[in-house]
Amino acid sequence: MIRLCYSNRMEELAAALGEALPAPGDAASLFDGPWLVIPGRPLELYLDIELARRRGVSGGFPTFTPAGLFARLTADALPDVALIERGHIVTELVAVLSDPNLAHAGDDHAAALRVLGDHLTAAGRAPAAVDRRRVDLARHLGALFDEWTMTRPELLAAWRAGDRAERPRPTTDAWRTVETALFAALFGPGGRFDRRGAAEARRYLTLDRFLAEGLDRSWRPPDAVHAFGLGRVTPGLQLALARLGTRTRLCIYALNPCQEFWEDLPTRPRPLPSPSSPSSPSSPSSLSYPACSGVGSVAVHRHAATPPRGHTATRPHRHAATPPLGSATSMHGIAT
């Protein structure tokens, strides 16, 4: 089950998370408590301070990034499968970029790949200068490929399948063709990750490919997972969260300044609800919430929090639903 709690104030989200976590000193959660998912270290530090301020103590819960969460679940359930992370990609890219025969490939990417030599020697041909630019390029492309696994899973699937209609032509943009060729050298059939997996007797898979093969059925998450501060739910991440939500109680705490903040939500004029006749929590509404539109039926219960300065009224309760597509989902909003 997935529960989405949203607010336009980060401190209210921290308060909601603090109420949902086991009380300090709960012996039952000492070794089998919920997991926390936080996208970055700065936000993790902020949440530690907020929880300590509200609960008197913070810590004691395993904390992961989204990628780290899925890597941990996979490693625990399938030791012979490894999810490809950014560090893996950068390492293999450095190896590929160090191959002196790369720019002399006999396919239609050869001309575009020659721009790599020009780039690597732009600061001089001294080995140290070339190595610095090689590592810098590998880190940049590694971050790009890692992001694509979350944002463009359908494109990666087409490239893996060798669908040349989805590949940029060499004459249109040399660097885009370089990206395609390097991606194929790593992730394509017989690529670096296939050969590395064969040598280590394990499989290296991207998250989208892992989900496409249904291997997530082996995940054994704890009874509850709390994801805090997920500001952007990409298609790949949305699918992974939907699958995870069928196996545990997943609570997502998202910052949402207003209902029209979502880029894919069409904004249209609508009358404001009358304070004298608030909407019933059980009555349907025409509102939709793209953050959950791909993961299941959504029930919304919005509870008023302390209003910011200058505000004297709070919004009424609302109940809304989106078309079901996956696990049953509830959503709790804190309105100000």
- CATH topology title of the largest domain: Rossmann fold
Report the portion of residues in β strands.
Answer: 5-15%
User: Which runs of at least 5 residues are low in confidence (pLDDT < 50)?
Assistant: 277-291, 296-332
Q: Quick one: how many beta strands?
A: 9
Indicate the CATH class of the largest domain.
Alpha Beta
Please characterize this protein's 3D structure.
With 336 residues, the protein is of the alpha/beta class. It folds into two domains: 2-24 and 34-79 and 211-335, Rossmann fold (3-Layer(aba) Sandwich), CATH 3.40.50.10930; 85-203. Helices cover 40% and strands 13% of the residues. The chain has eleven helices and nine strands. The chain has helices spanning 10-20, 41-55, 66-77, 86-97, 110-120, 127-151, 153-160, 174-187, 192-200, 207-212, 235-245; strands at residues 2-7, 35-37, 63-64, 81-83, 203-205, 224-228, 249-255, 298-304, 329-335. The strands form two sheets. It has a seven-stranded parallel sheet with strand order 3-2-6-7-1-9-8, with helices on both faces. It has a two-stranded parallel sheet with strand order 4-5. Helix 1 (10-20) packs across helix 2 (41-55), helix 4 (86-97) packs across helix 6 and helix 5 (110-120) crosses helix 8 (174-187).
Descriptors:
336 residues; alpha/beta; 2 domains; seven-stranded parallel sheet; two-stranded parallel ribbon; elongated
